Amino acid sequence: MTIAAPAPKANMGEPAPRLDARLKVTGEARYGADFPLNNPAYAFLVTSAIAKGRIRSLDLSQARAVPGVLEILTRENTTELKDIPFSPGGGGASTSIQKLGPEIAHDGQIIAMVLADSYEAAREAGYKVKVDYEVAPASASFDSPGVTQEDATKVSERHKEVPKAGDANAALASAEVVIDVEYETPTQHHNPIELFTTSCVWLDDQLTIYEPSQFVYGLKNAVAQRLGIAPDKVRVISSYVGGAFGSKGQMTPRTALVALAARKLNRPVKLVPTRAQGFRIATYRAETRHHIRLGAGKDGKLVGYMHEGWEVSSRPDPYVVAGVEDSAHIYPFGAVDTKVHIVHADRNTPGFMRSPPVVPYIYALESAMDEMAVKLGIDPVEFRRINDSMTDAMGKSYSSRSLMKCYDEAAAAFGWQRRDPRPGSMRDGDWLIGWGCASAVYPTHVGTATARVRLLANGEVRVQTAAHEIGNGAYTVIGQMAAERLGVPLSAVTVELGDTNLPPAPVAGGSNTTASTCNAVRKACDAIRGKLFHAATTANDGPLAGRTVDELTLTEGRAVANDGAQEKLEDAFKRLGASAIEEYAEFVPPGIKPEAIGQLYAGKGALTGGSHGEKLMYAMGAEFVELRIHALTREIRVPRIVGAFAAGHIMNTRTTRSQYMGGMIWGISSALHEATEIDRRRGRYINDNLADYLVPVNADIDQLEVILVPEEDRDVNPAGIKGLGELANVGTAAAIANAVYHATGRRIRKLPIRVDDLLAA
Ligand code: MOS
Known about the structure:
Blueprint: E1 2-4, H1 21-25, E2 41-47, E3 53-59, H2 61-64, E4 69-73, E5 103-104, E6 110-116, H3 119-127, E7 130-135, E8 148-151, H4 152-155, E9 164-165, H5 168-173, E10 177-185, E11 198-203, E12 206-210, H6 216-227, E13 234-237, H7 254-265, E14 269-271, H8 275-281, E15 288-296, E16 302-313, H9 324-327, E17 335-344, H10 358-376, H11 380-386, H12 403-414, E18 426-428, E19 431-443, E20 445-447, E21 449-456, E22 461-464, H13 474-486, E23 493-496, H14 513-538, E24 552-555, E25 558-561, E26 566-568, H15 569-576, E27 580-587, H16 596-601, E28 607-609, E29 618-630, E30 636-646, H17 653-672, E31 678-679, E32 684-685, E33 703-708, H18 732-744, H19 755-759
Parallel strand pairs: 1-33, 2-14, 12-13, 16-17, 22-23, 30-33
Antiparallel strand pairs: 2-6, 3-5, 3-7, 4-6, 8-17, 9-17, 10-15, 11-12, 11-14, 15-16, 18-19, 19-29, 20-28, 21-22, 21-27, 24-25, 25-26, 29-30, 31-32
Bound molecules: dioxothiomolybdenum(VI) ion.
């Protein structure tokens, strides 16, 4: 892989190396299952081998006879656990299917947990639990007999309304050019490398949980509720998360079971589920279908957009992403009509997965945009330019929008002007070449967050906030914000995250972490500056006496006035008679009520942004891919991908580039590799391992170029930060599908696109 790395531009922070880089590469960073426990018992899950039916009986005799087995938890001896309501989003329960039977609602439902002196004994005993099932026919997915369908707006708390504007039917009926197309995306599983582990330790009535989590406060409060104990009896520690992508944002049924086991045994308990179990005991991205109608004038101006989506969920839970809440705002469509349906099947409840609302919906929209550009005979970049607007069809305006800047920079770097638009025209020997592009968009989410910052007279800084290091670089960017505001080097800053003993931060979801927590840290730092500056300026003597606070800044361990007068930090502290200043700050984004801070402590985060505020807030980008398809074997290669992205103030150009690279690679994955296969007769997942669940390897990725486009946005939040972690994998799949059309003249409207799709006549 070759990676171009141009110099940082304006409004971009330092490319500081990760504060945790050394710990990670030396194995010192402690993930959930790494924390040493004193004489732990080991747990192994027994999960259902059918997707629907009933347990007639469990025979535990052989399992109990395995040497080292301590206890087996089943529904009989876990009645103290309380079922808590399904609550999509941050915190709360990932599913309402929490009982260990006798009713079976999905493949792989937890039905028992074996506890033993060793992992091996627990596993052996787990396989010796004999289950007598009464099997019922399971509805696997779309089109399966027995699925039921409902309107998402009727059942989803978060989607009571979907975008509408004008009379889309009439607009489409009278449009000069219309397309009417359907798309489909597959089931996908996050497959974080770190498994869904949980370790629990009780000290008297105090429970400590070590579990990889995207929301430690959410987990703490939900587990307390499930155990029927006070939240202040629970501490959750999650210092590092080895990948999550949405799968660790909520409480899954395993956690309270492990806590209960540890209480019953009066001994620490560690659970490390298998990867196959991870496909069933956590969430995933459900398969979706889309029906899109687009209308435009011959001049390329869009006049109408209808987008109807279908998403699979479990039988009881109305999980839905309803990405029309974003897609309908991206271009000024004229008239808009959208609708989202939930299709209930006998499946585990899906949940957030990397760029949850937008990924499937923008794949569909950006594919349709390309189809329309072709039908109009307009270059796809120019087609977007014709429909680039600061205002959407519903009359809302963007806080900032850099879509065409991104297109122009990426197109220039890619060499788009050399493209011959005729399908199949750019051949190189036996290889058909396809060039395609698409927009990337991600809603800018910001949430309530709190932080505590301490500045010592010697210039050392400690930052505490219960945010989450999920591979995003949270330690580093949070440290950078404190270093910037307090005028100290990053090496002087210690950052503590991922622990409910720290002040709360929101769920690490919807790419809000940097914006939310950096604003809280900034506020705490400014309070510290305020105290120092006040002391320095109101003193009778000293170099800064009589200045105003606004004239001062902190830099290199000094308070400095505009005219250069300065005082050393140590002297300023002496004046205060203190050796440290500590400030706690609460950041509440505009549009969120102050009570939200109390709710955050209670494990309920509040996020705003995207299409939900007064202004439309989005990070945007443009991606260009070159695809090569072998004329005879139809082997598909992606030799080149270029993405340009704008996301407000960039805290760290290095971690940002990493996020964009990972995103684009994930986009290639979703376009060409990833899909969870389902046995349609039995409703069970088939390829539940990393050998059969395809993801790209190094050989699949060649040249990859990331361009950071400068952008200023004063509306999104005081620090001007837009989330970007989930931006770059949006649109990639459409860009690749559009390139497949350009290479072959064939539209494949179903992901992933594989060799067999291109071989079929
Ligand atoms: Mo991300 S799916 O919002 O963790």
